[in-house]
Amino acid sequence: MNLKDCAACTAAMAMFQIVSHNWSLLPSLQLPLPKLLILQSLCVKASTPPSSWYTDPSFLQLELQHVFFRGWQTVGFTEHVENPCDFFSGRLGNVEYLVCRDAKGDLHAFHNACRHRAALLVSGKGSKSCFSCPYHGWTYGLNGSLLNANRMAGIQNFNKDDFGLVPINIATWGPFVLINLDKDIPFHQKSTAEKVEYEWLGDGSEIMSTNLNYLSVKHVRRREYVIDCNWKVYCDNFLDGGYHVPYAHKGFSSSLNMNTYTTEVYEKIIVQRCESASTNDNRLGSDAFYAFVYPNFMVSRYGPWMETNLVLPMTSSKCQVIFDYFLDETLMDDKVFIEKSLEESHAIQVEDVEISERVQRGLESPGYCSGRYVPSVEMAVHHFHCLLHQSINQNLY
Ligand code: FES
Ligand SMILES: [Fe+2]
């Protein structure tokens, strides 16, 4: 029998909707503890979403439209556009974007597509005084204006001012650069820092500012992993309250005191904390702070390290995870410590990649449709799914 067609699995989807719907009607609570209890009480009854959420390309299109192309999304770091003429580029879904700082010091984001015949203007990161298209040489200023278009004699109804780069709303929070691709927000509607903070982090902004201590760290390394799993498999794994740690990370689990593992659920962020097992762990320090910012960004702070993971959907069964490592400035010259720490982090990541790919293969199998949440540890996974359900539902109807 194909389980995906069975009545229980159809009911599982209905149950997920009912439970999520109840959650969305709850009054907004300020303290994490009552929220946590309510979420636990809801997730005792809930089934996990049907596997089609993780395998169906049309569901990914819904997510792009209603989750990633709405609200603020993390795309990079202020450190990489610190000076005039600095830029970096990236891709979110099918959106190619670039972020740059102009000569006056203003930060901009644009669609990274030439207004002539659409060639990508730049790739990677660096410094440029203007953007010259590699195809036919149209040249743009760092404020997006079209400065020069070659061999245009005879063209009619063409005004250079109408062919500047298409702007994207941009903001920063601490060391992070955010963009907002929502077509319903007019470009020139500038948001205040407070508004951006609330829209991005909800009621979790104070927790983030208090715990990240980001002023003392500098970027040291980027690592990128392409994983054969839906982007949510990777996020679910991060959010399972340490449930998988003793099984999937047998070596690493002895570094943590798993009895101290806690989860705090806020509106848009989820915080997990755990103490180290040893007082002499130079990489982990005394405890770890793991924050998840809906929908796809993770910031971990442990010992002298700050680590970010950006999970980008590629297809319904493939994602890219970009790891950026920041280190306390006083240790930037300690190459041995840096390489050893990064190696340890990579080993954990290899285990997470392997388990995530195993989950994806199971999700694609006809023998699985939907599972259950373990209420004592997986309330954050449930909250993440509720937020997704809410984003997609509220924009659909
Ligand atoms: S596509 Fe850029 S100049 Fe032609
Ligand atoms: Fe893990």
Automatic annotation (TrEMBL):
| Domain Rieske, residue spans | 72-179
The record, for InterPro entries, names: Rieske_2Fe-2S (IPR017941), Rieske_2Fe-2S_sf (IPR036922), Ring_hydroxy_dOase_asu_C_dom (IPR015879), Rng_hydr_dOase-A (IPR001663)
Gene Ontology molecular function: any one: choline monooxygenase activity
Q: Which UniProt keywords apply?
A: 2Fe-2S, Iron, Iron-sulfur, Metal-binding, Oxidoreductase, Transit peptide
- Top-rank taxon, per record: Eukaryota
Q: What EC designation does it have?
A: 1.14.15.7
Would you tell me the Gene Ontology cellular component terms?
Answer: chloroplast stroma
UniProt keyword annotation of Coiled coil present: no
Catalytic activity, as annotated: choline + 2 reduced [2Fe-2S]-[ferredoxin] + O2 + 2 H(+) = betaine aldehyde hydrate + 2 oxidized [2Fe-2S]-[ferredoxin] + H2O
The pathway that the record names for this protein is: Amine and polyamine biosynthesis; betaine biosynthesis via choline pathway; betaine aldehyde from choline (monooxygenase route): step 1/1
Cofactor dependence is on:
Fe cation; [2Fe-2S] cluster
Xref: PANTHER family: CHOLINE MONOOXYGENASE, CHLOROPLASTIC
The family annotation for this protein states:
Belongs to the choline monooxygenase family.
Purpose of the protein: Catalyzes the first step of the osmoprotectant glycine betaine synthesis.
Q: What is this protein called?
A: Choline monooxygenase, chloroplastic
Organism, as annotated: Dioscorea cayennensis subsp. rotundata (White Guinea yam)
